[in-house]
Write a structure and sequence with these properties.
The protein is mainly α and 274 residues long. Helices cover 68% and strands 4% of the residues. Helix 7 crosses helix 8 and helix 8 packs parallel to helix 10.
Length: 274
Protein backbone atom coordinates (compact mmCIF):
# COMPACT_ATOMS: atom_id res chain seq x y z
CA UNK A 1 0.00 0.00 0.00
CA UNK A 2 1.57 3.25 -1.09
CA UNK A 3 0.68 6.79 -0.31
CA UNK A 4 0.08 6.10 3.39
CA UNK A 5 2.31 8.30 5.57
CA UNK A 6 4.61 6.52 7.98
CA UNK A 7 3.80 6.98 11.64
CA UNK A 8 5.46 5.98 14.90
CA UNK A 9 3.74 3.49 17.18
CA UNK A 10 4.56 0.58 19.49
CA UNK A 11 6.29 -1.37 16.73
CA UNK A 12 8.64 1.49 15.82
CA UNK A 13 9.40 2.21 19.49
CA UNK A 14 10.16 -1.48 20.05
CA UNK A 15 12.43 -1.56 17.00
CA UNK A 16 14.28 1.50 18.27
CA UNK A 17 14.81 -0.06 21.71
CA UNK A 18 15.91 -3.37 20.20
CA UNK A 19 18.43 -1.65 17.94
CA UNK A 20 20.96 -1.30 20.77
CA UNK A 21 21.36 -3.01 24.14
CA UNK A 22 21.88 0.34 25.90
CA UNK A 23 18.41 1.50 24.81
CA UNK A 24 16.59 -1.16 26.85
CA UNK A 25 15.23 1.48 29.21
CA UNK A 26 11.96 0.94 31.08
CA UNK A 27 9.94 2.42 33.93
CA UNK A 28 10.75 1.09 37.39
CA UNK A 29 7.46 2.19 39.03
CA UNK A 30 9.01 2.83 42.43
CA UNK A 31 5.89 4.41 43.89
CA UNK A 32 3.61 1.61 42.72
CA UNK A 33 6.07 -1.01 43.93
CA UNK A 34 6.22 0.56 47.38
CA UNK A 35 2.44 0.92 47.49
CA UNK A 36 1.94 -2.72 46.54
CA UNK A 37 4.24 -3.85 49.34
CA UNK A 38 2.40 -1.63 51.82
CA UNK A 39 -0.97 -3.10 50.78
CA UNK A 40 0.30 -6.66 51.17
CA UNK A 41 1.93 -5.76 54.48
CA UNK A 42 -1.32 -4.31 55.81
CA UNK A 43 -3.30 -7.35 54.66
CA UNK A 44 -0.89 -9.58 56.54
CA UNK A 45 -1.12 -7.43 59.66
CA UNK A 46 -4.91 -7.71 59.59
CA UNK A 47 -4.74 -11.46 59.01
CA UNK A 48 -2.27 -11.79 61.87
CA UNK A 49 -4.66 -9.88 64.15
CA UNK A 50 -7.60 -12.11 63.21
CA UNK A 51 -5.54 -15.25 63.76
CA UNK A 52 -4.47 -13.98 67.20
CA UNK A 53 -8.16 -13.41 68.08
CA UNK A 54 -9.00 -16.99 67.11
CA UNK A 55 -6.18 -18.38 69.24
CA UNK A 56 -7.04 -16.14 72.19
CA UNK A 57 -10.63 -17.38 72.06
CA UNK A 58 -9.43 -20.99 71.97
CA UNK A 59 -7.07 -20.54 74.92
CA UNK A 60 -9.85 -18.97 76.97
CA UNK A 61 -11.93 -22.13 76.72
CA UNK A 62 -11.40 -24.89 79.26
CA UNK A 63 -12.55 -27.88 77.15
CA UNK A 64 -10.05 -30.60 76.39
CA UNK A 65 -11.09 -30.89 72.74
CA UNK A 66 -10.30 -27.28 71.97
CA UNK A 67 -6.92 -27.44 73.69
CA UNK A 68 -6.12 -30.75 72.00
CA UNK A 69 -6.83 -29.38 68.53
CA UNK A 70 -4.53 -26.44 69.28
CA UNK A 71 -1.72 -28.97 69.74
CA UNK A 72 -2.60 -31.45 66.98
CA UNK A 73 -2.84 -30.33 63.36
CA UNK A 74 -4.66 -33.50 62.24
CA UNK A 75 -7.40 -32.97 64.82
CA UNK A 76 -7.74 -29.32 63.87
CA UNK A 77 -7.94 -30.19 60.15
CA UNK A 78 -10.65 -32.76 60.86
CA UNK A 79 -12.70 -30.36 62.99
CA UNK A 80 -12.33 -27.66 60.31
CA UNK A 81 -14.50 -29.86 58.07
CA UNK A 82 -17.18 -30.19 60.71
CA UNK A 83 -17.15 -26.97 62.74
CA UNK A 84 -17.81 -23.47 61.38
CA UNK A 85 -15.37 -21.73 63.71
CA UNK A 86 -12.48 -24.07 62.93
CA UNK A 87 -13.36 -23.88 59.24
CA UNK A 88 -13.10 -20.09 59.41
CA UNK A 89 -9.71 -20.36 61.12
CA UNK A 90 -8.50 -22.84 58.50
CA UNK A 91 -9.52 -20.46 55.71
CA UNK A 92 -7.67 -17.70 57.49
CA UNK A 93 -4.51 -19.84 57.79
CA UNK A 94 -4.62 -20.69 54.09
CA UNK A 95 -5.13 -17.01 53.27
CA UNK A 96 -2.11 -16.07 55.40
CA UNK A 97 -0.09 -18.70 53.56
CA UNK A 98 -1.01 -17.24 50.16
CA UNK A 99 -0.48 -13.66 51.28
CA UNK A 100 2.86 -14.42 52.90
CA UNK A 101 4.10 -16.16 49.77
CA UNK A 102 2.97 -13.25 47.59
CA UNK A 103 4.47 -10.70 49.98
CA UNK A 104 7.85 -12.41 50.25
CA UNK A 105 7.98 -12.93 46.50
CA UNK A 106 7.18 -9.25 45.95
CA UNK A 107 9.93 -8.27 48.42
CA UNK A 108 12.53 -10.34 46.60
CA UNK A 109 11.46 -9.10 43.17
CA UNK A 110 11.51 -5.47 44.32
CA UNK A 111 14.95 -6.05 45.83
CA UNK A 112 16.21 -7.29 42.45
CA UNK A 113 14.62 -4.35 40.63
CA UNK A 114 16.28 -1.88 43.00
CA UNK A 115 19.66 -3.39 42.11
CA UNK A 116 19.20 -2.41 38.45
CA UNK A 117 21.09 0.72 37.45
CA UNK A 118 19.59 3.88 36.08
CA UNK A 119 20.45 4.75 32.48
CA UNK A 120 23.34 7.12 31.98
CA UNK A 121 22.53 10.70 31.05
CA UNK A 122 23.82 10.08 27.53
CA UNK A 123 21.58 7.04 26.99
CA UNK A 124 18.53 8.65 28.52
CA UNK A 125 19.03 11.77 26.43
CA UNK A 126 18.93 9.63 23.27
CA UNK A 127 15.98 7.60 24.56
CA UNK A 128 13.89 10.60 25.64
CA UNK A 129 14.88 12.61 22.57
CA UNK A 130 13.59 9.94 20.25
CA UNK A 131 10.37 9.56 22.26
CA UNK A 132 9.64 13.28 22.32
CA UNK A 133 10.37 13.65 18.62
CA UNK A 134 8.54 10.53 17.39
CA UNK A 135 5.61 10.66 19.87
CA UNK A 136 4.74 6.98 19.33
CA UNK A 137 1.97 6.87 21.94
CA UNK A 138 -1.32 8.62 22.44
CA UNK A 139 -3.42 8.59 25.57
CA UNK A 140 -1.80 7.69 28.89
CA UNK A 141 1.34 6.38 27.17
CA UNK A 142 2.33 9.97 26.40
CA UNK A 143 3.23 10.49 30.08
CA UNK A 144 6.07 7.94 29.93
CA UNK A 145 8.79 10.52 30.60
CA UNK A 146 6.94 12.26 33.42
CA UNK A 147 9.49 11.17 36.06
CA UNK A 148 12.98 10.79 34.53
CA UNK A 149 14.34 9.29 37.76
CA UNK A 150 11.96 6.33 37.62
CA UNK A 151 13.77 4.37 34.90
CA UNK A 152 16.12 1.40 34.79
CA UNK A 153 18.54 0.29 32.11
CA UNK A 154 18.38 -3.45 31.54
CA UNK A 155 21.42 -3.42 29.26
CA UNK A 156 23.86 -1.90 31.78
CA UNK A 157 26.07 -4.66 33.17
CA UNK A 158 28.43 -2.38 35.10
CA UNK A 159 28.74 1.28 35.96
CA UNK A 160 31.20 3.04 33.61
CA UNK A 161 33.95 5.05 35.26
CA UNK A 162 33.80 8.84 35.10
CA UNK A 163 36.56 9.15 32.54
CA UNK A 164 34.81 6.71 30.19
CA UNK A 165 31.56 8.62 30.64
CA UNK A 166 33.23 11.92 29.74
CA UNK A 167 34.95 10.41 26.68
CA UNK A 168 31.67 8.80 25.55
CA UNK A 169 29.83 12.11 25.84
CA UNK A 170 32.56 13.89 23.89
CA UNK A 171 32.67 11.05 21.38
CA UNK A 172 29.11 11.69 20.33
CA UNK A 173 30.10 15.25 19.41
CA UNK A 174 33.62 14.78 18.07
CA UNK A 175 33.78 11.31 16.53
CA UNK A 176 32.39 10.71 13.08
CA UNK A 177 30.54 7.50 13.92
CA UNK A 178 27.80 5.75 11.95
CA UNK A 179 24.19 6.84 11.62
CA UNK A 180 21.33 4.78 13.04
CA UNK A 181 19.70 2.48 10.52
CA UNK A 182 16.33 4.22 10.79
CA UNK A 183 16.86 7.29 12.96
CA UNK A 184 19.04 10.01 11.48
CA UNK A 185 19.39 11.81 14.82
CA UNK A 186 21.10 8.85 16.51
CA UNK A 187 24.78 8.10 15.86
CA UNK A 188 26.91 5.10 16.78
CA UNK A 189 30.65 5.00 17.29
CA UNK A 190 33.01 2.13 18.02
CA UNK A 191 33.25 1.10 21.68
CA UNK A 192 36.78 -0.20 21.04
CA UNK A 193 37.84 3.26 19.84
CA UNK A 194 36.44 4.81 23.03
CA UNK A 195 38.22 2.18 25.11
CA UNK A 196 41.53 2.90 23.36
CA UNK A 197 41.13 6.63 23.96
CA UNK A 198 40.32 6.03 27.64
CA UNK A 199 43.35 3.73 27.98
CA UNK A 200 45.58 6.30 26.30
CA UNK A 201 44.38 9.13 28.50
CA UNK A 202 44.82 6.98 31.61
CA UNK A 203 48.36 5.97 30.68
CA UNK A 204 49.33 9.53 29.81
CA UNK A 205 47.88 10.90 33.05
CA UNK A 206 49.57 8.23 35.18
CA UNK A 207 52.91 8.82 33.49
CA UNK A 208 52.56 12.59 33.79
CA UNK A 209 51.78 12.44 37.51
CA UNK A 210 54.70 10.11 38.22
CA UNK A 211 57.37 11.45 35.86
CA UNK A 212 56.30 15.06 36.37
CA UNK A 213 56.63 14.65 40.12
CA UNK A 214 60.06 13.02 39.80
CA UNK A 215 61.35 15.75 37.46
CA UNK A 216 59.98 18.53 39.67
CA UNK A 217 61.47 17.00 42.81
CA UNK A 218 64.81 16.51 41.05
CA UNK A 219 65.05 20.13 39.86
CA UNK A 220 64.06 21.67 43.20
CA UNK A 221 66.85 21.95 45.74
CA UNK A 222 64.99 23.33 48.76
CA UNK A 223 63.86 20.51 51.10
CA UNK A 224 60.85 22.56 52.21
CA UNK A 225 59.70 23.02 48.61
CA UNK A 226 60.27 19.31 48.01
CA UNK A 227 57.90 18.49 50.86
CA UNK A 228 55.29 20.88 49.47
CA UNK A 229 55.60 19.37 45.98
CA UNK A 230 55.34 15.89 47.46
CA UNK A 231 52.08 16.82 49.17
CA UNK A 232 50.73 18.55 46.04
CA UNK A 233 51.46 15.67 43.68
CA UNK A 234 50.08 13.15 46.18
CA UNK A 235 46.84 15.14 46.41
CA UNK A 236 46.67 15.38 42.61
CA UNK A 237 47.11 11.62 42.28
CA UNK A 238 44.44 10.85 44.90
CA UNK A 239 42.05 13.33 43.28
CA UNK A 240 42.55 11.90 39.80
CA UNK A 241 42.00 8.33 40.99
CA UNK A 242 38.93 9.30 43.01
CA UNK A 243 37.30 11.43 40.29
CA UNK A 244 38.20 9.59 37.10
CA UNK A 245 37.78 5.97 38.17
CA UNK A 246 35.32 3.81 40.07
CA UNK A 247 37.94 2.88 42.65
CA UNK A 248 36.64 2.26 46.15
CA UNK A 249 37.88 4.24 49.11
CA UNK A 250 40.21 1.45 50.21
CA UNK A 251 41.66 1.24 46.70
CA UNK A 252 42.16 5.01 46.57
CA UNK A 253 44.01 4.90 49.90
CA UNK A 254 46.16 1.95 48.79
CA UNK A 255 47.06 3.51 45.44
CA UNK A 256 47.82 6.89 46.99
CA UNK A 257 50.01 5.28 49.66
CA UNK A 258 51.97 3.39 47.00
CA UNK A 259 52.40 6.55 44.91
CA UNK A 260 53.54 8.58 47.91
CA UNK A 261 55.96 5.81 48.91
CA UNK A 262 57.66 5.99 45.51
CA UNK A 263 58.11 9.75 45.82
CA UNK A 264 59.33 9.51 49.39
CA UNK A 265 61.94 6.92 48.41
CA UNK A 266 63.08 9.22 45.59
CA UNK A 267 63.59 12.28 47.80
CA UNK A 268 64.50 10.54 51.07
CA UNK A 269 68.22 11.07 50.45
CA UNK A 270 67.87 14.83 49.92
CA UNK A 271 65.36 15.84 52.61
CA UNK A 272 67.96 16.07 55.38
CA UNK A 273 69.45 19.51 54.83
CA UNK A 274 71.65 21.74 57.00
Amino acid sequence: MTGIPAFKAYHSFANFIASDIELWVYKRFDSLGARNLLYLQTELLEAERQLAEHEEQEFSEKTTDVRYQAQCWETFAQRAQENAREHCKMELILRVRRLLKEYQKALLLRSEVLKLRRPTSRVFEVFSGWFEHAQPFIGTGRTLLQDPRDFVALGMTEEPDRLSTVIQDLGGKCLRGNSHTTEAGVKYYSASVIQKIVSGVTIALAALLLEGAIVALYLVTSPHVKLVLLAVFTCLFATSVGLLTNARRAEVFAGTAAYAAVLVVFVSGTLSGP
